[in-house]
Amino acid sequence: MSNRDLLDYQEQYSKQPYEKYQVAFRKRKLLDLLSKNNHSNLLEIGCGLESIFLDVASYDHITVVEPADLFYDKAVADKAHAKNKNITIIKALLEDAAEKLKKNKFDLILLSSLLHEIPEQNKFLSTLHSIASNETVIHVNVPNAKSFHRLLAVEMGLIPSVFQKSESNIQFQQHTIFDLDLLTSTVEKNGFKVIESGSYSFKPFTHQQMQNMIDAKFISDEILDGFYKMEKYLQGIGSEIYVNIQKR
Fold this sequence. Notes:
Rossmann fold, seven-stranded mixed beta sheet, about 40% helix
């Protein structure tokens, strides 16, 4: 994780088209997860521009670990607006904060839109394994190789395989393109068991195409909401996939 260019990443991330909608749908899934699982002591690894503490207050304490300056500074500023201010924000890579984190017993750990960007995934997951207790539920979400828009690109002849890296994948330093099978096998070989999995946030076109259609008012908020709900009919081809896991 340490050889990622965090400065370039945070600058590119903040300018990415459509991402604010994707973040909203990602949080929608996270809030559903929080409603079903104990999260008295919550750990968020990588908060991006909007930590989950802006959307939920039903925890006793939340710890945020974020190494990028832009995202860390935003989280510190946002803490003043949180309804529940029992928040600790740590500016560090996970492996550098591990010893401090091991002193906690986390009920729920959120690893949202991060694992695919990490080169040394086995090392990272080993660190995560050392932090979690046997009861901890860990939510991992990543972009889906078999998203409808990538499948469409294959059938159109634009890419030879759903695992082909796009310009966007390269721009955002995305190390691995996961489908659900690869995500499952990756966590399982690192000492975890999958207790729930699926996809969400149906997206028929690329980020830029979606943004263009939103700007042109071809796609409304109502259509976007409908796209999100389409997953129940089109299982497995949402734009992102997730696994909820525990230590084996």
